[in-house]
Amino acid sequence: MRSSYSLLVLASAALMSACESKPAETPPEAPKTLHERLGGTAAIATVVDAFVANVAADARINKRFARVAGDTGAMRQFKQKLVDQVCAGTGGPCTYTGLDMKAAHNGMGITDADFDALVEDLVKALDGAGVPQKEKDELLAILGPMRADMVIK
Ligand code: HEM
Fold this sequence. Notes:
Layout: H1 2-21, H2 34-37, H3 40-56, H4 66-69, H5 72-89, H6 101-105, H7 112-128, H8 133-143, H9 147-150
The structure holds protoporphyrin IX containing FE.
Protoporphyrin IX containing FE binds at residues 61, 64-65, 67-68, 78, 81-82, 85, 98-99, 104-105, 108, 110, 114-115, 118, 143, 146, 150.
């Protein structure tokens, strides 16, 4: 009786030390979201600032933004919507509460050339912030399909 008890104690001690000596398992790292790779919401806000400045200086399309350009509060809200939209669309912890793209641009008569000009202004802002090609391509791939919702046929 005593010896089988000792055996049991030995066996469980052996088992326990086997468990202890097992290397700690490190969970596989989750792939980083585009939001994270862009540098987070603050970095997105910096790009949005530069983008809006580029649009304001772009004679091809800046007249369309006269309302927000002439109203500090409206401009702040507009930029916030852009940040929320990009943040949410790239997997970040934001909620976009603005209009959907069809409703937001309805009746503006936006052409392909307008859309291309705006994308050019965005790329300039992304380049200025040093966003790598891969992340730039991924963001443009998210925004590109929106063209169909706003450009006149
Ligand atoms: C991927 C491309 C685009 C995105 C992601 C985008 C995004 C947005 C967003 C989030 C809003 C605010 C919606 C709201 O008020 O709830 C907005 C408004 C607006 N967008 Fe766009 N847009 C794009 C392209 C364009 C283009 C090509 C033009 C014209 C050149 C344009 C002109 C405007 C104007 C004039 C407003 C209203 C600004 C105001 O409040 O007065 N957008 N857009």
